[in-house]
Amino acid sequence: MKFTVTSRGDTHSDQLCEMIKKELQLGELVFDEEAPDIVITVGGDGTLLEAFHVYAHRLEETAFVGIHTGHLGFYADWVPEEVEHLVTHIIKTPYQIVEYPLLEVVIRYRDGRASKRHLALNECTVKSTEGSLVCNVEIKGETFETFRGDGLCMSTPSGSTAYNKALGGAILHPSLASMQLSEMASINNRVYRTLGSPLVLPQHHTCLLKLLNDVSVQVTIDHFNIPNYDENVDTIQCRVAEEKVRFARFRPFPFWKRVKESFISE
Ligand code: NAP
């Protein structure tokens, strides 16, 4: 089996990475950064998000596992004290795969540029960089509402505990192939009206945001901006992607337990 290890870049994570690499090689696994079967990330959820985008072109052949060297993560759910145990599991046990849904985002431009397709593990956000964002929200080809406000966030179920949660969105179990649309400070009065609640859409329902005013917008996919402040974005289309992200599971750690331990108490 081929593996790679990525680090957040701090000393502790780097040292753990080196230790894991050495132990797995002693266990006769092959270090391969180009085409790994398993990607082990050491750091936090942000580290796993970065690794996801590095290997997004070969999701069917790649499984991820995350170790957190900070606070408990949703993707990074192993602690450094468990690393030896994890390494033994990776060497000896055929692991289970758990698949989570992803978000497909297609951005179309007004200036003739080819459309771009992206996959998000957490979410896509659209924000105006000057004044309010005004856009039509279409669901399954029908106009649903005209949004006016700071921006919109379309998240995956596993991303529902990230930015979406800060916007008052619901936490969705990752077994639900769905996406969630949540608002950032919508203007609601007798002239402008939006639903005001987060919406959960099932697989194969498309949500299209058509920008109506000439403001430059910032579109983010997980931790990166694409590209900064673009005035020529015409539409942003989101739906549940056909691809899924695969996590290697060596022991049960139910999602609701992770939610409780992250947000309520250990
Ligand atoms: P960051 O701004 O350095 O950190 C964002 C925080 O979100 C980190 O604590 C990260 O955990 C945590 N996080 C990432 N994915 C998560 C998930 N699925 N569930 C719960 N927490 C999660 O940025 P980053 O580390 O590169 O992560 C990018 C993400 O930050 C974006 O995808 C977005 O969801 C989130 N974000 C949140 C807000 C907000 O809540 N107001 C604003 C902007 C961006 P670790 O410390 O374990 O890495």
UniProtKB/TrEMBL annotation:
Ranges in a coiled coil: none
Catalytic activity: NAD(+) + ATP = ADP + NADP(+) + H(+)
Alphabetically ordered keywords of this record: ATP-binding, Cytoplasm, Kinase, NAD, NADP, Nucleotide-binding, Transferase
CC cofactor: a divalent metal cation
Compartment(s) of residence: Cytoplasm
Record-linked Pfam families: NAD_kinase, NAD_kinase_C
UniProt: NAD(+) binding residues: D45, G46, N122, E123, R148, D150, A185
Main subcellular location of this protein, as a coarse class: cytoplasm
Entry EC no(s): 2.7.1.23
Keyword Cytoplasm appears in the UniProt entry: yes
Active site: D45 (proton acceptor)
GO molecular function: NAD+ kinase activity
Protein name: NAD kinase
Species assigned in the record: Shouchella xiaoxiensis
